[in-house]
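Subject: sequence -> structure tokens, single chain

Hey, anyone have a minute? Need the predicted structure for the following. Not urgent.
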Amino acid sequence: MSIPFGGPRGIGGELFEQRVSPRIMESSWNDRWLPPSLLRVERGFMLPRREVFPHVIEMNYQARRRLGCSVYLVHDRGEWLLIDIGFQDTTDEIIDLIRQLDFSLANCKYLVATHADVDHIQGLKRAKELLPGATTVGHPECQQLLAAGDRIVTYAEISAQGISIDLPEIKIEQTINEGSTLTVGDLSLEVWNTPGHTPSQLAFRVGDLLFSGDNIYRDGGVGNIDAHHGSDIPAFIHSLERIRDSDVKWLLPSHGPIFRKDRTQIQRTIDRLTGYQHMADFGTCAVDWPLLDEWEAELARGFNPDQA
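Reply:
Had a minute. Here:
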């Protein structure tokens, strides 16, 4: 089912008024953030849902503060799923907040991993404990990395920077890949495999929205490029070209703010990565290094300070 999303929506309007009581509207209308210690479901009342688009809640926006990576709740007709969950130390808070938004925890259909990076998936084991009816899904490589407990590729261990993060035993119960579809209610999420940052990077299209993972952020940056991570610059460029040439209007990234797709901005990012293919900035992720060919020629003819 294709949903014509025209633009972002906040908590105002008829839908909001139907969801919450006048008492809650009066206390929450100004979108004031309350710390978690004060977020309480009053007798018979739920918190207002702050949808960024119809059927879509982003949990950092909902909480009005940064919890970690973006965590998207997509819902329709009572069913819902989560795209990524982030670190385990915020998992209970996120699930409790979802409960306070009047979602039945028994109706969570999927827990989706966009890829295997620890900052996206560390909380999956705890989320599965809290949502036992949900199926954990991800790319086949994501399944393999988590089954093996690979601490290097998942970024759980970066010894040079003193980073060592707990990586729980996580089971991806169902694999998805290019061409797969996930459904909640009457909504269908089209699965894209968009390698580059990592081979297992997935994106999800619903109407004119693309949950775009770590492909590109609002400042034009991209997910880490790292040979140990399996990054592939030519594949990254291809994924960005696909996003650029698609007719999606909004990009919902895994980090940072949601933004309108801008072909010019994406092209600037593509041009930058195209240059990286032929420079030493990202080591063995480059396809060649023309400077060394220039040096070979210079070695043959000898050093000339007037030409250096």
